[in-house]
């Protein structure tokens, strides 16, 4: 059941969080009791899958701590305290479609406009209130509207960023592949020169040739030994970058499809 009035026991004391009806793209919780101020919950994309809007961002004071600073008077603070605190938390759902909270990660530490971190007790209380507000929002009947609002707000700029990132990643993969080719060529040259010098040493022993063939830092022998490994690792980096670009392009395709659906007035299914 969705709670319009949460009672939360925290290390700082009992906190009451009154949920306001969804307006715009955020649910506001007004705090009273041991903590005063406000908490806002908005939808957002999954931290690892940016085309999936299956997460909630909880922000202290502001509607969205990632986009705007909160008015100082709205920042949560201890009862009787003068210092309000900023911070945010991301809470995401599992893939079962039941919107059961799976895990959360703090995306910013608690702080204050004056740069003072809260005490351990206050920090624990703030974190507990944020988790309870996220859990409450995750079970509200208007959750689909909250996530759809997040999709409308975030999808266009995510699409721009992912398109830029995919282009940059493709260029990086090309650079790694060229570097690996250069390393393979340098390795073959080093091996060929070493064996040539070894043949000269057999035919005409000389201290300079012995020095040329010795294994020490920066030597021809060391380069012949290490360059193949460097080339292999560089090729692996190119493959990893290609795989990352492939994932980004899949997310780009998904986001474009969602934007087309939004423009046609259809609400994409929440995954």
Q: How would you characterize the overall build of this protein?
A:
By secondary structure, this protein is an alpha+beta fold. The protein folds into 2 domains: 5-141, no CATH class; 151-263. 48% of the residues lie in helices and 21% in strands. The chain contains 4 helices and 8 strands. It has helices spanning 120-138, 143-203, 207-213, 220-263, and strands at residues 5-10, 13-19, 26-33, 35-44, 55-60, 77-78, 86-93, 101-111. Strands 1, 2, 3, 4, 5, 6, 7 and 8 form an 8-stranded antiparallel beta sheet that branches. A hairpin with a 6-residue loop joins strand 2 (13-19) and strand 3. Helix 2 runs antiparallel to helix 3 (207-213) and helix 2 runs antiparallel to helix 4 (220-263). The chain is elongated, with a radius of gyration of 29 Å. The protein starts with a strand and ends in an 8-residue tail after the last helix. The model has no long low-confidence stretch (mean pLDDT 86).
Determine Rg (CA atoms, Å). 29 Å
- Anisotropy-based shape: elongated
Element pattern in H and E: EEEEEEEEHHHH
**Secondary structure category:** alpha+beta
User: Which percent range describes the beta-strand content?
Assistant: 15-25%
Q: Give the domain tally.
A: 2
End-to-end separation: 21 Å
- Total helical segments: 4
Uncertain segments are none
The main sheet comes to: 8 strands, antiparallel
**Can you count the beta strands?**
8
Provide mean pLDDT, rounded: 86
Work out the oligomeric state of the chains in this entry.
single chain
Q: Helical residue percent?
A: 40-55%
